[in-house]
């Protein structure tokens, strides 16, 4: 670790943040956080118990009434100050994400930009929560429709975008007037802890945001979800865990937002601009080392251009420089841990055993850290795991199609429905594909759609609800209707 990194880690709080105070776990236990590029332990942080989870809920409940009564402008200004301070601390946040998660510094800076925008966007939305007033149809009274904060929320976030996945939930919840308990992933808790320290600095009242970090997510989360005072569960993570949490949330009939897994089709038609398609593929596949819910998972390429597409993509992949994300010139970092490397490697082996052809990569480099080479496979048989399951690693699997109908059938042949990418220069065909693909989001001739102003979310088993945009704040509001008879 460099001196700079040691100095940064010394600034990151290692406790739980409950009711405006940093404290140790009630059991005194700690959990280690590792650098995925070296396997070295970075720091130890508090490992919350069930009692700590209950204390965090108590604090969120205690702060709910006064936070809901805080003027929207004041709530918005706190978020805006957080946005401004995050810009000042951009380099620190980027470095912290790189060392705890592995993404190269340039990508980490990009995430500070992206994640910060949710603070700015929802600072502006806080003052635009509107209602309706009107006469009832019978003319015998007046109808008032207002939007109220849903109440205390439990927010569970994944490790792949440690800042943006937290701000995409915390900012709209706070803007709406909700208090929260946040549980970041145990692999990347440091960014959330550092961010909450920033919220404290910009004057967020005690109890509005509470953070618990734990190595026993299921044990600590279940009683919070079962707590009758909780009103909303917002989860980002795998579909398997989302399904379990939905079942738990059903007991309390909780409002839920579920941002779950993806298995995105990346369809390239024979009329596509191939350079644009390859640029799109590089972004859609290799952003975050392939560890994004929006990652292109199945490359469905017209048979007449598949060989050329594979050649051009392979040439671009060969340009990656693999290494620790802090090192100069590195463009491709490690995967998050050893389990991710093993799962990626198993998918490559499965595809090769079934007859796929390797164009580049396909192995882990020598040396420490959880690295895997960016990999391109072609002629991948349909039954291969990498065309069936969410990969969450840097693998491109190319398969071919002949007709538009076949492309649609292949693209929709999944239980997921987060995003689809289509490359064509025929606008009418592009519009047909937008209508025919069963996804919550589409990229037409682009490999990146994420934006704080975009309603982000999926259909089918990719989830429920939307984050960001105008829709995002409504996930934290409930509609209340009142009738006042005419006197
Ligand atoms: N749709 C989206 O916006 C989106 C965004 C990012 C990631 N994801 C998905 O997340 C997955 C990768 O992230 P991950 O590996 O962190 O997912 P994960 O489901 O393993 O974990 C996500 C979070 O849930 C927690 N968790 C796990 N089991 C739990 C339980 N039983 N009770 C309570 N909490 C529990 C984890 O500690 C972590 O904080 C991929 O499937 C990816 O597609 C989706
Ligand atoms: O991993 C999923 C989130 C990706 C994004 O918000 O762009």
TrEMBL record:
GO terms for biological process: gamma-aminobutyric acid catabolic process. Its EC number is 1.2.1.16, 1.2.1.20, 1.2.1.79. The active site is at 259. Residues 22-481 form the Aldehyde dehydrogenase domain. Keywords: Oxidoreductase. The keyword Hydrolase does not apply. One of its GO terms (molecular function) is glutarate-semialdehyde dehydrogenase (NADP+) activity. Pfam families: Aldedh. It is an enzyme of class 1 (oxidoreductase). PROSITE patterns: ALDEHYDE_DEHYDR_CYS, ALDEHYDE_DEHYDR_GLU. Belongs to the aldehyde dehydrogenase family. This is Succinate-semialdehyde dehydrogenase/glutarate-semialdehyde dehydrogenase. It comes from Glaciibacter psychrotolerans.
